[in-house]
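During the first year of the project, the team set up a workflow for recording each protein of interest as an amino acid sequence followed immediately by a discrete structure-token representation. This format lets reviewers and collaborators read both layers of information side by side without switching files. As required by the reporting guidelines, we include two representative entries from the current panel. The first entry is reproduced here exactly as it appears in our internal archive.
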Amino acid sequence: MDRVGRYAREIVPAFNAYLYFRLGIWIARRVARLLYRVRLGWSDEAGLSSIAKGSTVVFVMNHRSNMDYVLVGYLASTRAALSYAVGEWARVWPLQALIRSMGAYFVRRNSGDELYRRVLERYVAMATAAGVTQAVYPEGGLTRDGRLRQPKLGLLDYILRAFDPRGEPCKCAIR
């Protein structure tokens, strides 16, 4: 149980709504507009409006740079706070505390520890069931050339395991 608690403290974010929506989105907007000419070409407003209240939305996208977190968070900020899985690269002080407060959770890539994987799976299942909007990069890392790499489907698997086709309708919408 000590290891379970240690793993849970390592994984679970310390979301702070004020930091996310006031400071984080303000910084994201400034940085994004400083570096890019940000334009949203199309938005499926009818599709987004038809998502049932209490559903979990999962954004699945290609990961080309660490700015992806900033850009997607900024673009989605009028509708939701996004929760991401973040790799070991971000586990440096003071970046780690800031990233955790923004709702990201840390994942040990290629961990062979079965107990760690079970704790991670349970966290992802609980966050998804609670309606936390998820953002997933299926290749599990950066793709500098923009082409998709071989997918790592662990997080998507954890998100979808609770789906029962014979039970209640699924409360998740994958877009």
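The second entry, processed by the same pipeline in the following quarter, appears below.
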Amino acid sequence: MADVRRPSFAPISAPSGGVLVVLTDDSLGFGPRTRGVLGTAAAMVAKAAKAERFTGKSGSALDIVAPAGLKASRLIVLGTGKAAERKSQDFVKLGGVVMGRVPAAASEAVAILELPDAALKPDAAADVALGATLRTYSFDRYKTKRKEGDEDAKARLTLGVADAAGARRAWASRSAIADGVVIARDLVNEPPNILYPAEFARRAAALRKLGVGIDILDVKAMRKLKMGALLGVGQGSTQESRLVVMRWNGGKKGAPPVSFIGKGVCFDTGGISIKPAAGMEDMKGDMAGAACVVGLMHALAARKAKVNAIGAIGLVENMPDGNAQRPGDIVTSMSGQTIEIINTDAEGRLVLADVVHYINTRFKPKFMVDLATLTGAIMVALGQQHAGLFSNDDKLSAQLTQAGLDTDEKVWRMPLGPDYDKMIDSKFADMKNTGGRFGGSITAAQFIGRFVGKTPWAHLDIAGTGFSSPSSDINKSWGSGWGVRLLDHLVAEHYEK
């Protein structure tokens, strides 16, 4: 995994040097322990706040160099806004803000996690640690030289808390989630000459050390299962396709599993319907859905989630050689349904069609959630602030929507219906793989829905959030690892109790 720094927890006390970070709100007050640490410097903070017009607004900071009366070389006062407007998910962001304000040159930093009204409870302190950890992530393993100013803050961060033992216990599960996000980011950031289907499968198989069962199906095995839709996508590449099934059995024996399915197009040229050259390098990220599923399965296994879970990823490379499928070809999916290929660049839904059917018929899951960087159309509709949510089940949809609000990995439900479904009917086969220009993300979801049956299902179109999305307080990476925290929260809140 990439290099990340994990904070440590300690009782609240004055640091002997380095950077000191303290919290306030719109009252510009401090908690009793923080006032004790600041001592006479508290008056100086009030004076500086007035001079700098610092009001304690959420995310704002007051930076004082060489503060008189303190051994710290720098004092940073972070605003958290109005107490009445504070939400639980804000503490993860706060961790990112803390780490982002620590200067790159600093080697030590102490952040006192106490607000004017109360010290942070263990869960909130652990959330701060999660945000701080994710903020330190960077992917630079292929750089041989570093430019001055390139480095982010990598200080050793100590979080001063009222209950250090409780915070460490709460951190155990957050640490597993952090590792899952880092794994997903690493996979998305890797170049396509390094991360091709067989190598992706090998990395997913590393989950065996956490007790995850791994099945890897090669082309021969998939051909035996008659996965003509998935195999058709990869037949133009010299890199053979793979299907990886990951099984975590942490729930009751025999209980139906929850299941997560990821699109893993390790590189997408578009095939015969080739993409423009400009920006094609970004298509190394067309496997962000699969990366999320691997990261999620790591998180569930590492924190020993009390649930049975299946993660499945279809891994292919979409290339335009003489053996590639053509527009006009008709392929037969594992379900027996036939598909007319209209555009070879609408390949992700073909991969998902066979994997969804395989997981549904073999494991009979409680629900299925698939993730895919599927359509540019979803970015036209929603930008990069929400993933598109399509579902045949109102309960699952509501759970995902709330999980998105709780983790700030937001989703927005889009419509499905018979009128859209008609748009993918074919004159020559059971269906075609595109429905035309209009409603592109909807017809793509309708296509996947034809392989779902009556199982509760949700499709997340993460084309706008899976890679090259706007940076945030907890992510400065091109590969975001989006979806790991969302789906882990879904499981924890609704399927482990």
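For the second entry, the following points were noted during internal review. The first strand starts at residue 8 and ends at 11. Residues 164-189 form the longest helix (26 residues). Both points are flagged for discussion at the upcoming steering committee meeting.
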